């Protein structure tokens, strides 16, 4: 799928001080990314705090992002969970006509076997009228989806077109790249490993840091896709400190702190998440100033 090659950004959900979705800030964030090189938008993933967003709020977020985007960039919608029946029901109940694909996270907490993961995604595939991107993130789910399971799904179901792999394992990425079907996309979900994955044959990234630095990050990804490793790594090195900082305490509190410093949104997150420490935010401010990001959203 050409729409999913390059830089996708896992959009945060901005909140007000009253713990409501801040739709004005969301509009600013989307417009900023569209105007600065992002290739596609990912809504309601784990970075969007999907587990603490209500159904009604999710529909309003879809409406806001769709209105601002107005068809300019492809969109991917997060629909996943650890209750297979509920995931299937949400797929059936959601108007997916404006989306290129759904991003479906591997079931968390339940810790299914590899066969359980296969059967879960088989059910998701059969229910979905649009392409499916698998999402493996064992740091959140406590269960790694092994390459053989991902590749089995890729071979068995035509509408399973990609995996967002976020296992933070170079070896696992290379196993997937080595054995994948020709048209199956390996998308990095690890910002710090994304460039290396792309240079090894990956199709791009669904990024957290990318939404704060879309121009630089997208340029790095494009250079990587063209095999221009030296120039791409120059940018990677510029972004290393800020990329590490946003994950130092929790995601998405880290990226929200950066976006707050930049003036795009407030730093609020929903419990059980809390805002980053003052010490970390001060460090982030130094990196943001060094990259001359303040005011870039306008």
Explain this structure to me?
The chain has 298 residues and is α/β, with parallel strands linked by helices. It is 45% helix and 12% strand. It has an 8-stranded parallel barrel with strand order 1-2-3-4-5-6-7-8, surrounded by 6 helices. Strand 4 (101-105), helix 4 (114-127) and strand 5 form a beta-alpha-beta unit. Helix 6 packs parallel to helix 7 and helix 11 (253-262) crosses helix 12 (278-290). The model has no long low-confidence stretch (mean pLDDT 97).
Any idea what the CATH superfamily is called?
Aldolase class I
Strand content: 5-15%
CATH architecture designation = Alpha-Beta Barrel
Mean pLDDT: 97
How much helix, percentage-wise, in residues?
Answer: 40-55%
Key traits:
globular, alpha/beta, TIM Barrel, eight-stranded parallel barrel, 298 residues
Summarize it:
The protein has helices at about 25-35, 55-70, 85-95, 115-125, 140, 145-155, 170-180, 195-200, 215-225, 230-245, 255-260, 280-290, and strands spanning about 5-10, 40-45, 75-80, 100-105, 130-135, 160-165, 185-190, 205.
SSE diagram, text form:
Blueprint: E1 6-10, H1 23-35, E2 40-43, H2 55-69, E3 75-78, H3 84-93, E4 101-105, H4 114-127, E5 132-136, H5 138-141, H6 147-156, E6 160-165, H7 170-179, E7 185-188, H8 194-199, E8 204-207, H9 214-225, H10 229-246, H11 253-262, H12 278-290
Parallel strand pairs: 1-2, 1-8, 2-3, 3-4, 4-5, 5-6, 6-7, 7-8
Helix pairs in contact: 1-2, 3-4, 4-6, 6-7, 9-10, 10-12, 11-12
């Amino acid at each position: 799928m050409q729409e999913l090659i390059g830089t996708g950004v896992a959009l945060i959900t901005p909140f007000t001080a009253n713990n409501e979705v801040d739709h004005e800030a969301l509009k600013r964030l989307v417009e900023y990314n569209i105007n600065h090189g992002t290739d596609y938008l990912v809504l309601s993933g784990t970075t969007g705090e999907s587990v603490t967003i209500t159904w009604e709020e999710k529909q309003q977020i879809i409406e806001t992002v769709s209105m601002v985007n107005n068809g300019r960039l492809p969109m991917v919608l997060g629909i996943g969970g650890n209750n297979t029946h509920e995931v299937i029901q949400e797929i059936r109940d959601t108007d997916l006509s404006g989306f290129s694909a759904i991003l479906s996270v591997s079931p968390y907490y339940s810790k299914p076997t590899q066969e359980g993961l296969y059967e879960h995604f088989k059910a998701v595939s059969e229910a979905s009228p649009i392409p499916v991107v698998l999402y493996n993130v064992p740091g959140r789910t406590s269960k790694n989806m092994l390459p053989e399971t991902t590749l089995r799904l890729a071979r068995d179901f035509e509408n399973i077109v990609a995996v967002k792999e976020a296992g933070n394992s170079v070896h696992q990425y290379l196993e997937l790249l080595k054995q994948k079907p020709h048209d199956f996309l390996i998308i990095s979900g690890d910002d710090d490993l994304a460039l290396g994955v792309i240079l090894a044959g990956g199709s791009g990234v669904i990024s957290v840091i990318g939404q704060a630095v879309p121009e630089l990050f997208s340029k790095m990804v494009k250079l990587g896709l063209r095999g221009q490793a030296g120039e791409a790594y120059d940018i990677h090195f510029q972004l290393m400190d800020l990329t590490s900082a946003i994950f130092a305490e929790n995601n998405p509190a880290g990226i929200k702190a950066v976006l707050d410093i930049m003036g795009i949104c407030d730093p609020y997150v929903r419990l059980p998440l809390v805002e980053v420490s003052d010490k970390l935010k001060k460090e982030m401010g130094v990196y943001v100033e060094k990259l001359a990001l303040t005011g870039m959203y306008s």
